Amino acid sequence: MSTAELLVARLADRGETVATAESMTGGAVCAALVAVPGASAVVRGGVVAYTLEMKQRLLGLDASLIERAGVVSEQVATAMAAAARTLTGATFGIATTGVAGPDGHGGREAGTVCLAVAGPRGDQVATVHLPGDRDAVRTGAVEHALAMLRAAMAGDVTGL
């Protein structure tokens, strides 16, 4: 059973829901979840806010937070996850922001990914550095995001 299948089954069993706010993964976290039969019972929705403007307009992120912390930061990932949760009424919100490459962005090197899960037991946030080309970084970010949701659901908010 894949991680996405396990998560959808556990969310359904617990009567819980999830929503995503994604930047560098472009909706791939949400796509991994909705690929699972029965996902409509637990996936509330997803927002792809690829640009700075869309993070502000769609997710309501404060410009001063983005300016202070940087668009690729744990603070922005946490705010994105909280926004996904609030906007959709989901039990859990998952967010990804990062630099898939091939070039760096905003002073962060390619392969830097900030992820967050907002949930009823608090926030879980991590920064990971993933090797490989653009596709490998994006794929790894999805895997890490799903693993973080799994840990948050288990009550482990200590990180990756």
Automatic annotation (TrEMBL):
<dbReference type="InterPro" id="IPR008136">
    <property type="entry name" value="CinA_C"/>
</dbReference>
<dbReference type="InterPro" id="IPR036653">
    <property type="entry name" value="CinA-like_C"/>
</dbReference>
<feature type="domain" description="CinA C-terminal">
    <location>
        <begin position="3"/>
        <end position="152"/>
    </location>
</feature>
<dbReference type="Pfam" id="PF02464">
    <property type="entry name" value="CinA"/>
</dbReference>
<protein>
    <submittedName>
        <fullName>Nicotinamide-nucleotide amidohydrolase family protein</fullName>
    </submittedName>
</protein>
